[in-house]
Amino acid sequence: MGSAMFNGKRKCRCQAIIIQDDSILFLKHQGKITSQPYWMLPGGALMEDETITDGILRELEEEICATVNIVKLVQSDVLDTEYYEFATFLCTLNHGCQIKPGEERHSIISKFEWIPICDILSGQVENKIKQVEPDIHSIIRNLV
């Protein structure tokens, strides 16, 4: 089963903001084609015939080997990027759940990091975070 497509683009990237101790979980990816590492929120492309909630739950299980609770859909954006739409969820880890780097089709997830919200909002980690997200700063500001 492949990614759902719309107008020649992948239809949707579902991604999660998981907050713990005033920090947000980011995954470090190492590209399989390029060796340049980058950090992203956990998530990925919606599969054919998959709802956005099913998609984020599957992606988190694949990427961080964990089950989560969806608190709410924080933002849904239609953007002019490789994806037609972004769906950003606020999620919590299930009680007692331990996370570990999982599998990814297009890159290797080498590790995860809890990045302090204040570092993200102040721009201290701009060189780390891959800018495929919609305006991550405004999304976070609306949450905190």
What does this structure look like?
This protein has three helices and eight strands; from the N terminus they run E-E-E-E-E-H-E-E-E-H-H. With 144 residues, the protein is α+β, with helices and mostly antiparallel strands. It is globular. The mean pLDDT is 79.
Helices and strands in order, then pairings?
Blueprint: E1 5-6, E2 9-20, E3 23-31, E4 37-40, E5 43-45, H1 52-64, E6 68-78, E7 83-93, E8 107-116, H2 117-122, H3 136-143
Parallel strand pairs: 2-7
Antiparallel strand pairs: 1-2, 2-3, 2-5, 3-4, 3-8, 6-7
Low-confidence stretches: none
Order of helices and strands: EEEEEHEEEHH
Corresponding CATH superfamily: Nucleoside Triphosphate Pyrophosphohydrolase
Portion in beta strands: 35-45%
| Structural domain count | 1
DSSP helical segment count:
3
CATH topology name: Nucleoside Triphosphate Pyrophosphohydrolase
In short:
The chain has 144 residues and is of the alpha+beta class. The protein has helices at 52-64, 117-122, 136-143, and strands spanning 5-6, 9-20, 23-31, 37-40, 43-45, 68-78, 83-93, 107-116. Strands 1, 2, 3, 4, 5, 6, 7 and 8 form an 8-stranded mixed beta sheet that branches.
